Amino acid sequence: MTTAATTENPASGARGDQPPVPEGAVTVTVKILRFNPETDSEPRWESFGVPALPTDRVLNLLHYVKWYIDGTLTFRRSCAHGICGSDAMQINGVNRLACKVLVKDLLAKGDKPTTITVAPIKGLPVNKDLLVDMEPFMEAFRAVKPFLITYGNEPTRERIQSAADRERFDDTTKCILCACCTTSCPVFWNEGSYFGPAAIVNAHRFIFDSRDEGAQERLDILNDAEGVWRCRTTFNCTDACPRGIQVTKAIQEVKRALLFRR
Amino acid sequence: MQFHKYDVVIVGAGGAGMRAALAASAEAGVSPKTAVLTKLYPTRSHTGAAQGGMCAALANVEEDNWEWHTFDTIKGGDYLVDQDAAEVMAKEAIDAVLDLEKMGLPFNRTPEGRIDQRRFGGHTRNHGEAAVRRACYAADRTGHMILQTLYQNCVKHGIEFFNEFYVLDICLTETDNGPVCTGAVAYELATGEIHVFQAKAVVFATGGFGKVFKTTSNAHTLTGDGMGIVFRKGLPLEDMEFYQFHPTGLAGLGILLTEGARGEGAILRNASGERFMERYAPTIKDLAPRDIVARSMALEVLEGRGAGPNKDYVLLDCTHLGAEVLETKLPDITEFARTYLAVDPVTEPVPVYPTAHYAMGGIPTNIHGEVLRDNDNVVPGLYAAGECACVSVHGANRLGTNSLLDINVFGRRAGLAAARYAANHDLLDLPENPAAQVEAQVAHALSEHGKERVADIRTELQATMDANASVYRTEETLKQALHDVQALKDRYAHITVQDKGKRFNTDLLEAMELGFLLELAEVLVVGALERKESRGGHAREDYPNRDDTNYMRHSMFYKQGDGLKGEIRLDYKPVTFTRYKPMERKY
């Protein structure tokens, strides 16, 4: 594939001299899909040479570009260790958190030069560079009633729940709403109205919580034309989840709950 | 520019902000029109990174009561804690945990199905006899579950959020009785537009400022914005010299490994494999409070007993816990060690070293979350809660889990107080040109006035703070830090922002954040220089003892004059005592 409008950064970037290169660093090419609707008519690839240590996270490389070469590069990040869910992006074609991918796992074999491609997650409108509009994603999340639903008086103390009942939905409580799963799903790409894996994961978290009394409401929502039946079990979502959630399994469990409630 | 009118505006969508929003909207018995403004998206806030637990004397697994929790909190804070506030927190902890459970939080359970509890540093039975199981937890992602649960309940109650709205100023209207808070001014990241939110009550829940340090467990976005805004308005900050270094950060990276690991039985060892905490805290050993453990680790390294090729860290040994405990009770930290250091805690000890973690100080408030403008008077309409606030329940050193407790107890209290205040007061007029200051700030940052890079100044700030204002401090190192920070402030006047656009200008955002970091770093260092004693998280090598005669008092910092170069005036506030007399702190 040709890379239109690729620019190599000069030794001294627009931001002045670059900081000293740490010992053991190799220069890798970070190829980023850029798009600023204020100035660009369409997305373009841009490459930057960045000194990288094997232990660097891809997020470090993006910071290097932003801080020392091109301050207009735009992406979200916060915690930098895989817990806040801000920096989901496509890294070498797969959805990952930039703070959880280390350079050592991306280095080319032998003496070959390394290129790391970074693009925004797919299926959500791109606002600027790697930063996408999360609102459609959050809307789907909110639509499945992602909160504990109970009726009657509250107990004085805590509700009792056995360790086994607590374990039943443990996996889906790990979700950080990063959108890696939903934006790796071909059905979501093609039919943006599909709730997507993350919303179903969060519905699962409550449907299988023994304290919850709202399972039927949520199952009715997910039985909709845009609901769980759209899932084609491609397992992209499970592969993409940075928290290791068995996403496809959770979706299958919701489907089964729908079948067996009749 | 856009104008909005609300009864209650909450700034920050971490644990304290969302708990305040829920209290204001659903628990206060009034229905104020409420908005939550957040620099991030909800659920991105750093509450989500908290791991180990939230203490409350539920006594689900062994005898416990809130009075013991109060005592532990006060002793843990080296007696600088306001004792009335600590009592409120320990007492209300029980309902705070039960409220979260009722909201849906999936706590780990005992065999009887009750909320399970585990040990944590400094939390003891009967005033220090032995470690007690007091921390309620959800694996090692308790903060994540709190943040998710609170957001889920905000969705349930239809709370209105303004995401990626960066608050840069508050509106203070002068009245005969002093300043009254009448709103907040925000920069909308998506558009570059400035928004004025007129409000009857404003709650600040903006978090900490750990990014003044290089090695920190804090998120990139923790830049002390709220504290900085309040300070620039001439309002005080309290006890800023007290900064907590968490003992177990991943060596070289600072990523947090929960104290809950030691709560489950993990042991700190030096290069020769010795369990060195037996020497420093013979009774509760590895479960001593964080300041003591962090200093012990630093001493081991300073005295040549560190592990690794450069002898610059110690080891957290979890290998005897077994794969099952690690996978079920500590799965996230197990993964962090594997991902970031390629060390498997199941089979190898993990390299750890103290990491900048938590600001004990902040915006002074009373127990209702009302912000103080001096030792005696509040700013009507302005509230603060969570890490950005100083109640003070943490004193000179916060106990583990008490921050998750703080955000729930005092987040709720601030939300209730703000809602009730709003119900009983009319909207006051805003000051003239409320957005002028922020407009000028943004315009100046975008104008051409120099070539200094934000990243360079920030890197140098973090380097000097790590080297000179960290676990151990001396007059000499602090003077160096002060000199460096002031020089960096001079250079900050010449920064350049490369992105001149209006759309998602995070280049501009980072420049603003750096301004707050510089401001707060200077306050921290000035406070540390002036406090010629060692107490809790503030350890002076040149003044190694606690000095209750001269320093049993809170520091109060006021900014004098305009601009980044304004002077800092230091004043003092007495500590509130109820029933606990200061004693020597031994564990």
UniProtKB/TrEMBL annotation, chain A:
What InterPro entries does its record include? 2Fe-2S_ferredoxin-like_sf (IPR036010), 4Fe4S_Fe-S-bd (IPR017896), 4Fe4S_Fe_S_CS (IPR017900), Beta-grasp_dom_sf (IPR012675), Helical_ferredxn (IPR009051), SDH/FRD_Iron-Sulfur (IPR050573), Succ_DH/fum_Rdtase_Fe-S (IPR004489), Succ_DH/fum_Rdtase_N (IPR025192)
Q: What is its EC number?
A: 1.3.5.1
Alphabetized GO MF terms:
2 iron, 2 sulfur cluster binding; 3 iron, 4 sulfur cluster binding; 4 iron, 4 sulfur cluster binding; electron transfer activity; metal ion binding; succinate dehydrogenase (quinone) activity
Q: Which GO terms describe its biological process?
A: respiratory electron transport chain; tricarboxylic acid cycle
* Major enzyme class: oxidoreductase
Q: Where is this region: Disordered?
A: 1-23
User: Do you know which Pfam families this protein is assigned to?
Assistant: Fer2_3, Fer4_8
Q: Which UniProt keywords apply?
A: 2Fe-2S, 3Fe-4S, 4Fe-4S, Iron, Iron-sulfur, Metal-binding, Oxidoreductase, Tricarboxylic acid cycle
4Fe-4S ferredoxin-type domain residues are 165-187
Q: Which cofactor does it need?
A: [2Fe-2S] cluster; [4Fe-4S] cluster; [3Fe-4S] cluster
Compositional bias segments (type: Polar residues): 1-10
Q: Name one GO cellular component term.
A: plasma membrane
Q: Which family does it belong to?
A: Belongs to the succinate dehydrogenase/fumarate reductase iron-sulfur protein family.
Protein name in UniProt:
succinate dehydrogenase
Q: Which organism is it from?
A: Actinokineospora iranica
Automatic annotation (TrEMBL), chain B:
Q: Where is the FAD-dependent oxidoreductase 2 FAD-binding domain?
A: 7-404
User: Membrane topology per the record?
Assistant: Peripheral membrane protein
Annotated GO biological processes are: anaerobic respiration; electron transport chain; tricarboxylic acid cycle
Q: Where does substrate bind?
A: H246, T258, H357, R398
Catalytic activity, as annotated: a quinone + succinate = fumarate + a quinol
What are the EC numbers?
1.3.5.1
- Cofactor stoichiometry and binding remark: Flavinylated by SdhE, about 5% flavinylation occurs in the absence of SdhE.
Q: Which residues does the record give as FAD binding sites?
A: 12-17, 38-53, 225, 387, 403-404
Extract one GO cellular component term from the record: plasma membrane
Q: Does the keyword Membrane apply?
A: yes
Q: Which pathway is it part of?
A: Carbohydrate metabolism; tricarboxylic acid cycle; fumarate from succinate (bacterial route): step 1/1
What's in the keyword line of the UniProt record? Electron transport, FAD, Flavoprotein, Membrane, Oxidoreductase, Transport, Tricarboxylic acid cycle
Kindly give the PANTHER family that the UniProt entry links to this protein: SUCCINATE DEHYDROGENASE 2 FLAVOPROTEIN SUBUNIT, SUCCINATE DEHYDROGENASE [UBIQUINONE] FLAVOPROTEIN SUBUNIT, MITOCHONDRIAL
Please state what the protein is called: Succinate dehydrogenase flavoprotein subunit
